[in-house]
Amino acid sequence: MANPRKPTALKVVAGTDRPDRKGADPIDLPLVSDIPPAPEWLPNRHAEAEWNRLAEILHNNRLLTEAGLGPLGMLCALHGKLVQLWMAGETPTGHMLAQYRALVGEFGLTPVAQGKVKPAEREPAGNKFAGNGRKRAS
To answer: How much is the pTM?
Structure first.
């Protein structure tokens, strides 16, 4: 079994974090402010339903960016086609299933992929205990 990398947070706590080993900063893609409607070109209602379901999940987790709308549409279109094939009693090709799995992984929608995808930074909430008027016991 390969050695998994220690998370950066643990390295910071242990004092072993080194700036020279950090990767490049990720690019900052603009987040989508509102969930857009499903594209008109989606092939069927199954694809549209998947768009509505996934777009909300990704938006709520701050993972839906302007650049990700096209790939999300492709994922939903492929989902719709797969459902159509299964409903017709046909079996999708291995290539279609592999493409679906790859796209789902890119969006962090599988348990394994969830650990690889980092949502955009949220605004710091501040110290919820500051200013509560209580003094520490001496």
So the answer is: 0.70
